[in-house]
Amino acid sequence: MSEILTIAMPKGRIFEEAVDLLRKAGYLLPPEFDESRKLIIEIEEEGLRFILAKPTDVPTYVEHGVADIGIAGKDVMLEEERDVYELLDLQISGCYLAVAGLPNTKMNDVAPKIATKYPNVAAAYFREQGEQVEIIKLNGSIELAPIIGLADRIVDIVSTGRTLVENGLVEYERIVDVTSRLIVNPVSYRIKDKMINDLVARLSKVVSVEVN
Ligand SMILES: Nc1ncnc2c1ncn2[C@@H]1O[C@H](COP(=O)(O)OP(=O)(O)OP(=O)(O)O)[C@@H](O)[C@H]1O
Ligand SMILES: O=P(O)(O)OC[C@H]1O[C@H](OP(=O)(O)OP(=O)(O)O)[C@H](O)[C@@H]1O
User: Which keywords fit this entry according to its UniProt record (predicted)?
Assistant: First the structure.
């Protein structure tokens, strides 16, 4: 029986761009990818099985080895250190993490509050700046926090910048650029090295064409 490579795909924002990239790399992904709600899609001819996961869960599936490889945002990788290798910057779903807040406001002198979906990234950033802060973890609508008085600043993703502008917020510092990455389980990489290297080579060609 031939080997199967299991790929954890992030549903949501990254999905379409990732599917597009795989198709450009020559993988024949059926229309199921565009229209179905199935969470496991197997393509026997390609020796591939896709599992469709919540973006933040992709590294979990890969770390535990139930997926050999996966596609995850650099933001997710930075927030939770995982025992996986990062093989390729896919250069898709570009955005960045930034500190933002109400314009012309100083942070509270004592333990300013920082609201974010990324508590570890935010804590590390302010530690490096030598600032003692209180992190408040939120799960969405982060921009509400400074407006409603929950926090002095937020650490959040900025893409077009529209959410900041429409909520009267400004960016104070850019922390790190974010794109999606191809990640691999270390054991899978040893055992299925040929299949994985083939996939990386095919994707690398497309990525470099798209970037240049
Ligand atoms: N404007 C953006 N906002 C958030 N994430 C973005 C943006 N642009 C690109 N990304 C990338 O997409 C990933 C998030 O995708 P998506 O918003 O579909 O998932 P999610 O955070 O689980 O969303 P939700 O919790 O709203 O379901 C991030 O990890 C990041 O790498
Ligand atoms: O710079 P922009 O293009 O406006 O994109 C940035 C916004 O998009 C994301 O929120 P999302 O839409 O995922 O909603 P959420 O608040 O539920 O996380 C992110 O958290 C910002 O709020």
Answer: Amino-acid biosynthesis, ATP-binding, Cytoplasm, Glycosyltransferase, Histidine biosynthesis, Nucleotide-binding, Transferase
> Class for domain 5-93+179-211, per CATH?
alpha beta
**Ligand 1 test: best mutation among 19, 82, 157, most atoms within 8 Å of CB?**
157
Strand partners, 86: 183
Q: What are the start and end residues of each CATH 3.40.190.10 domain in the chain?
A: 5-93+179-211, 95-176
Structure tokens at 6: 């299991």
CA distance readout (Å), 18 to 36, 43, 71, 96, 188: 16, 16, 8, 18, 21
Q: Identify the CA nearest to 49 among candidates 206, 195, 166, 211.
A: 195
Ligand 2 close to Cβ of residue 158 (< 6 A): yes
Check pLDDT > 60 for residue 17. Answer: yes
Atom of ligand 2 nearest to the CA of 157: 19
Give the tens place of pLDDT for each residue, 74-128: 999 999 999 999 999 999 999 999 999 999 999 999 999 999 999 999 999 999 9
- The closest-lying atom of ligand 2 relative to the alpha carbon of residue 141 is 16
pLDDT one-digit tens code per residue, 186-195: 999 999 999 9
Q: What is the ipTM of this complex?
A: 0.96
- For the domain covering 95-176, report its CATH number: 3.40.190.10
